Amino acid sequence: MKLFSWNVNGIRSVHKKGFLEWFTTTSPDILCLQETRASEEQFPEDVKNLPRVKLHSTVADKKGYSGVATWSRQKIVDTKKLEIKLYDSEGRTLIHDLGWAYLLNCYFPNGQRDHARVPFKMEYCAAIQKKVKLLRKTKPVIITGDFNTAHHPIDLANPVSNKNTTGFLLNERAWLDEFQKDGMVDVFRHFNPKEVGAYTWWSNRPGCREKNIGWRIDYFFVSEELMTAVKKAQIHADVMGSDHCPISLELDDKKLGLK
């Protein structure tokens, strides 16, 4: 089973840059997108009607802002939002009951250059952590998306010069420490503990992506009880179309009891 996640920085924008070709070639069983920036009615028709997959989406009250969407070939038993109006009004969260696990598709807030939204971001993080703890009481959890935080110095090209930049602040990173202590595993780093230069986002400033001056801020976390079914996790930095690149998680169907 292949799960992909990608902050597309606008579904209508990435549609013009080869999204359909990428989707057809990649053929994910589940695809989670963040920052779609459109209501479902505004999605291009051929994206809304991708064959053999079901679309779930949520959008911010503010037009052209935030939004997440999930396409699935797998049966989804139920889909909910976070059910906290403050965050649901920004279209940040979809929670899918897959039957054998819960899948959260999340777009974490950006703290902004002046740190004005860092408190809002940290409150969202706490709400997600609380929800994950609750869900894990009944079945395993997978959470993916743009977390807008690089966890360790290895996860960005210039950690020293960015120590006071949101996305690498001590309290943001400390929350990821707490999340892991709760039994959530950063799958890519689990399999690639010392890999440097593995980034998922690059500034649009000229030369940043070409020189690989980036940040790893997009993740797949799984609850530790699911790790026996995880085969691999990858970063697909060669895929263009957004300032982020896709990431993927591969699971063993047999170990999930699905075959």
Highlighted features:
259 residues, alpha+beta, Deoxyribonuclease I, Chain A, six-stranded mixed sheet, 14 strands, 23% helix, globular
> Which consecutive residue ranges, at least 5 long each, have pLDDT under 50?
none
Could you state the order of secondary-structure elements as H and E? EHHEHEEEHEEHEHEHEEEEEH
Give the overall pLDDT as a whole number.
97
CATH superfamily: Endonuclease/exonuclease/phosphatase
Q: Helical proportion?
A: 10-25%
Proportion of beta-strand residues = 25-35%
**CATH top level class name:** Alpha Beta
Extended strand count: 14
Strand order of the largest sheet: 3-4-2-1-14-13
Main pleated sheet = 6 strands, mixed
Task: Tell me the structural class.
Answer: alpha+beta
Alpha-carbon distance between the two ends? 11 Å
* CATH fold title: Deoxyribonuclease I, Chain A
> So how many helices?
8
Radius of gyration: 17 Å
Q: How many structural domains can be distinguished in the coordinates? A: 1
Secondary-structure arrangement, i.e. CATH architecture: 4-Layer Sandwich
Descriptive notes:
This protein has about 260 residues and is of the alpha+beta class. The protein has one domain (about 1-255): Deoxyribonuclease I, Chain A (4-Layer Sandwich). Helices cover about 25% and strands about 25% of the residues. It contains 8 helices and 14 strands. The protein has helices spanning about 10-15, 20-25, 45-50, 85-90, 120-135, 170-180, 185-190, 255, and strands spanning about 1-5, 30-35, 55-60, 70, 80, 95, 100-105, 140-145, 185, 200, 215, 220-225, 230-235, 245-250. It has a 6-stranded mixed sheet. Helix 5 runs parallel beside helix 6 (about 170-180). The N and C termini lie close together (about 10 Å). The mean pLDDT is about 95.
